[in-house]
């Protein structure tokens, strides 16, 4: 079985981001970029499934500018067998990404598609679900535990939902998106980094995949949330009540 | 990484503030063993007993009153160093307190026992003074007035910043008045073109780093205590830290200081080059508050570079570590920003005593090295680092290693190196030595000491290998004189024999005040004493520290 893992190159989660002065987006110049933490977890899970003998190949795919190759190299250094880079300089929204992944899935025929539950730059939490819908495959999102049954061709997935844990059984092929507590991703070790140098990364374009990238959504403006105002010291309970009543209008 | 270090620094502060001392007069109690309790006699001969309570606070200072003399003995350093309070110093009286209140206002003259308790105790809880007064000046003028007064009254003072020093230099030995510059914490100016930052001495290093971060700059120094230490203290002690290898020492900083008699020496400038006369600022940098109180600092900051990479590698022996250092300097050259090492014992200690830490490398080896590069081109730097490491792997210098893929992973690697100090505190009694040695000798002292101490203690070696700076730490279940007798003066003599420094970056403080001769000649020290007498004739600034007591006994 082949596992396809989608990984996204995002601003490193520890970086303090700033909005560009022209309000078109977040400033990504001279800022550290890394693999989305949830995508790391997705890749780690795929690798563990391969090491357990349930899969033959793990393919990492990334969609974006030329620097995505760095992200794919990280994936290869962790242990993925090969990479696919769909090169584009436009920043695509989840639906377009989902269409691209669908086309890729039709070419590669994986038994499982792993994605992170959401990207930390847009927090959309949509791509995995959309891919499943476009392919007509079952989906198990927010996975905190994945157990495969090779013979019956199903996966049993624990999902972290608001009310607690939900366990689903999905037929393969399926789409699984990963949540924080699924695993702790491995470090990229030097011997693996060395092996990664000889692993292939295939370049493709959206035209190759025959995907219509026209988006129905246009980002109008990106602004910072309003700055927290400093508090006001009050000298008595009466003054507090007066302020709550007349200024904050909450009493 | 910032958040992790801030959290850790907060733990350090909390550590330092946990006051488990309970002083109550108890005439009938018997002095107990060193590891748990300490007896403290006051000037009237009454027996106070301090109950330490938990194994973290394994160290206390003992004050003994023999008649009129008040003596001071500290555990954890050579028992031979017994200090006597200089009788020439005046004692604080109520007139002094009201005079200070007139200068500073009532609020900033602290007599509150709890606050004094914290101010009297150092971070390691090894040294404890008995000051009755802490002053909090708000500006240089107030510092000048206080010092003028103290000089005229012959009142000894201790300049204090973040109180994170490791040699007992920031706390009183007896009843010196504490002058804490914590309220002088304003950033005065920042030039975004030259990168020069002008600020008051009481600014916390981490706060400065956060401020600079918004402007796209970084401080030229970084150390584990950044959440609490003040830049004035850093400059006064010529602090080293993790970035020294790249940005050099603090001797490039310019400053304003106040001398013992209240004279304000304004050497503050923002010029990069200024060769006009004797460069006096160097006297104040590293003199640990014994020549003057630093009130303002003008420091050159560095632009923040986006590409930071960190590798954690394992080596079989110390010889490989040295070779890797040489190769790293050659191959990584201008992008190398940190080179730290730790031995297996240190790694074990950290894994045993800290939570949420795992060995990044799958195999246990004898030595681990952290190599950090900082540059402006992500892809280029990455390739350079990878190429260097892979070559080292092929040559057999490196047995295994990992490269951090994001800031989170990098933080976890740094946690191991920076967590050693914390782990040592948790493990029991610790004897700390900070030595500069020729790189090829660094680990020999660790091995020699291990053979010498045998089963008695756990010897750990780690530190800034890139600077030739070893942090030698001996961990034992509790403090005992036999152990200290085996360690000192052996460590100092060993260092001296190899022309090393007995204090690479921690300073002399009170811990090593009498040991300077292991690293400096008598003639040199004599001139130091002359300079001290010149700038502080009455000797009121941070007495009993830095220079040997024998030079000042009357």
Automatic annotation (TrEMBL), chain A:
<dbReference type="InterPro" id="IPR000049">
    <property type="entry name" value="ET-Flavoprotein_bsu_CS"/>
</dbReference>
<comment type="function">
    <text>The electron transfer flavoprotein serves as a specific electron acceptor for several dehydrogenases, including five acyl-CoA dehydrogenases, glutaryl-CoA and sarcosine dehydrogenase. It transfers the electrons to the main mitochondrial respiratory chain via ETF-ubiquinone oxidoreductase (ETF dehydrogenase).</text>
</comment>
<dbReference type="InterPro" id="IPR014730">
    <property type="entry name" value="ETF_a/b_N"/>
</dbReference>
<keyword id="KW-0496">Mitochondrion</keyword>
<dbReference type="InterPro" id="IPR012255">
    <property type="entry name" value="ETF_b"/>
</dbReference>
<feature type="domain" description="Electron transfer flavoprotein alpha/beta-subunit N-terminal">
    <location>
        <begin position="23"/>
        <end position="213"/>
    </location>
</feature>
<dbReference type="InterPro" id="IPR014729">
    <property type="entry name" value="Rossmann-like_a/b/a_fold"/>
</dbReference>
<protein>
    <recommendedName>
        <fullName>Electron transfer flavoprotein subunit beta</fullName>
    </recommendedName>
</protein>
<dbReference type="InterPro" id="IPR033948">
    <property type="entry name" value="ETF_beta_N"/>
</dbReference>
<comment type="subunit">
    <text>Heterodimer of an alpha and a beta subunit.</text>
</comment>
<keyword id="KW-0813">Transport</keyword>
<comment type="similarity">
    <text>Belongs to the ETF beta-subunit/FixA family.</text>
</comment>
<dbReference type="Pfam" id="PF01012">
    <property type="entry name" value="ETF"/>
</dbReference>
<keyword id="KW-0249">Electron transport</keyword>
From TrEMBL, chain B:
<dbReference type="InterPro" id="IPR016166">
    <property type="entry name" value="FAD-bd_PCMH"/>
</dbReference>
<dbReference type="InterPro" id="IPR006094">
    <property type="entry name" value="Oxid_FAD_bind_N"/>
</dbReference>
<dbReference type="InterPro" id="IPR016169">
    <property type="entry name" value="FAD-bd_PCMH_sub2"/>
</dbReference>
<dbReference type="InterPro" id="IPR004113">
    <property type="entry name" value="FAD-bd_oxidored_4_C"/>
</dbReference>
<dbReference type="InterPro" id="IPR036318">
    <property type="entry name" value="FAD-bd_PCMH-like_sf"/>
</dbReference>
<comment type="similarity">
    <text>Belongs to the FAD-binding oxidoreductase/transferase type 4 family.</text>
</comment>
<dbReference type="Pfam" id="PF02913">
    <property type="entry name" value="FAD-oxidase_C"/>
</dbReference>
<keyword id="KW-0560">Oxidoreductase</keyword>
<keyword id="KW-0285">Flavoprotein</keyword>
<keyword id="KW-0274">FAD</keyword>
<dbReference type="InterPro" id="IPR051264">
    <property type="entry name" value="FAD-oxidored/transferase_4"/>
</dbReference>
<dbReference type="Pfam" id="PF01565">
    <property type="entry name" value="FAD_binding_4"/>
</dbReference>
<feature type="domain" description="FAD-binding PCMH-type">
    <location>
        <begin position="127"/>
        <end position="304"/>
    </location>
</feature>
<dbReference type="InterPro" id="IPR016171">
    <property type="entry name" value="Vanillyl_alc_oxidase_C-sub2"/>
</dbReference>
<dbReference type="InterPro" id="IPR016164">
    <property type="entry name" value="FAD-linked_Oxase-like_C"/>
</dbReference>
<protein>
    <submittedName>
        <fullName>D-2-hydroxyglutarate dehydrogenase, mitochondrial-like isoform X1</fullName>
    </submittedName>
</protein>
<dbReference type="InterPro" id="IPR016167">
    <property type="entry name" value="FAD-bd_PCMH_sub1"/>
</dbReference>
């Amino acid at each position: 079985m082949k596992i396809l893992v989608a990984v996204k190159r995002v601003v490193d989660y520890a970086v303090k981001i700033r909005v560009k002065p022209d309000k078109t987006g977040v400033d990504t110049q001279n800022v550290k970029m890394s693999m989305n933490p949830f995508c790391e977890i997705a890749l780690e899970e795929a690798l563990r499934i391969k090491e357990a003998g349930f899969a033959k190949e793990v393919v990492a795919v990334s969609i974006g500018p030329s620097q995505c190759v760095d992200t794919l190299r990280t994936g290869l250094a962790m242990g993925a067998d090969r990479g696919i880079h769909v090169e584009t300089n436009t920043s695509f929204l989840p639906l377009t990404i989902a269409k691209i992944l669908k086309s890729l899935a039709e070419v590669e025929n994986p038994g499982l598609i792993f994605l992170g539950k959401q990207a930390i730059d847009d927090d959309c939490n949509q791509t995995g679900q959309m891919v499943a819908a476009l392919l007509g495959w079952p989906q198990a999102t927010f996975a905190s535990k994945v157990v495969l049954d090779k013979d019956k061709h199903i996966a049993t997935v624990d999902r972290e939902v608001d009310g607690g844990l939900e366990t689903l059984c999905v037929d393969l092929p399926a789409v699984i998106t990963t949540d924080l507590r699924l695993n702790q991703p491995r470090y990229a070790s030097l011997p693996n980094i060395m092996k990664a140098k000889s692993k292939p990364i295939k370049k493709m374009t959206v035209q190759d995949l025959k995907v219509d990238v026209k988006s129905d959504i246009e980002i109008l403006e990106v602004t910072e949330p309003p700055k927290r105002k400093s508090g006001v010291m009050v000298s008595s309970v009466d003054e507090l009540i007066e302020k709550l009543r007349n200024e904050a209008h909450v009493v | 990484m910032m958040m992790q270090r801030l959290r850790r620094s907060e733990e350090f502060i909390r550590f330092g503030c946990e006051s488990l001392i309970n002083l109550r007069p108890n005439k009938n109690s018997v002095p107990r063993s060193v590891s748990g309790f300490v007896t403290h006699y006051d000037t009237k001969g009454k027996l106070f007993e301090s109950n330490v309570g938990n194994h973290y606070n394994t160290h206390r200072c003992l004050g003994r009153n023999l008649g009129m003399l008040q003596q001071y003995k500290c555990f954890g350093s050579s028992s031979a160093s017994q200090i006597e309070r200089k009788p020439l110093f005046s004692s604080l009286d109520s007139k002094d307190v009201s005079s200070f209140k007139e200068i500073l206002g009532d609020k900033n003259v602290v007599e509150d026992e709890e606050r004094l308790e914290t101010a009297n105790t150092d971070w390691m809880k090894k040294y404890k003074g008995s000051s009755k007064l802490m002053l909090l000046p708000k500006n240089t003028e107030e510092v000048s007035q206080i010092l003028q007064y103290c000089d005229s009254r012959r009142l000894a003072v201790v300049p204090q910043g973040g109180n994170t020093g490791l040699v007992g230099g920031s706390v009183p030995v007896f009843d010196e008045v504490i002058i804490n510059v914590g309220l002088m914490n304003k950033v005065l100016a920042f030039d975004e073109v030259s990168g020069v930052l002008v600020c008051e001495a009481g600014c916390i290093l981490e706060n400065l780093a956060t401020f600079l971060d918004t402007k796209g700059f970084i401080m030229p120094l970084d150390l584990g205590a950044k959440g609490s230490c003040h830049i004035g203290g850093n400059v006064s002690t010529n602090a080293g830290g993790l970035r020294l290898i790249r940005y050099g020492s603090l001797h490039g900083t310019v400053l304003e200081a106040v001398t013992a008699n209240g004279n304000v020496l304004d050497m503050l400038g923002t010029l990069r080059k200024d060769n006009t006369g004797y460069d006096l600022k160097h006297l104040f940098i590293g003199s640990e508050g014994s020549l003057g109180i630093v009130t303002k600092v003008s420091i050159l900051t560095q632009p923040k570079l986006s590409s930071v990479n960190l590798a954690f590698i394992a080596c079989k022996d110390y010889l490989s570590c040295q070779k890797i250092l040489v190769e790293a300097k050659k191959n990584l050259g201008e992008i190398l920003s940190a080179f730290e090492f730790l031995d297996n014992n240190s790694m074990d200690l950290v894994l045993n005593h800290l939570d949420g830490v795992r060995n990044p490398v799958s195999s246990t080896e004898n030595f681990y090295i952290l190599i950090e590069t900082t540059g402006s081109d992500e892809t280029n730097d990455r390739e350079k680092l990878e190429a260097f490491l892979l070559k080292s792997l092929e040559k057999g210098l490196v047995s295994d290693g990992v490269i951090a893929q994001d800031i989170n992973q990098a933080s976890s690697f740094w946690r191991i190196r920076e967590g050693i100090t914390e782990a040592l505190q948790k493990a029991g009694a610790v004897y700390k030595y900070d030595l500069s040695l020729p790189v090829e000798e660094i680990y020999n002292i660790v091995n020699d000491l291990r053979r010498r101490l045998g089963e008695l203690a756990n010897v750990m070696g780690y530190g800034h290998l890139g600077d030739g700076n070893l942090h030698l730490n001996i961990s034992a279940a509790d403090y005992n004189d036999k152990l200290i007798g085996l360690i000192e003066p052996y460590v100092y003599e060993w260092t001296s024999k190899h022309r090393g420094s007995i204090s690479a970056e921690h300073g002399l403080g009170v811990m090593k005040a009498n040991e300077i001769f292991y690293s400096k000649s008598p003639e040199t020290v004599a001139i130091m004493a002359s300079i001290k007498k010149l700038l502080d004739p009455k000797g009121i600034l941070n007495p009993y520290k830095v220079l040997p007591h024998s030079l000042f006994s009357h």
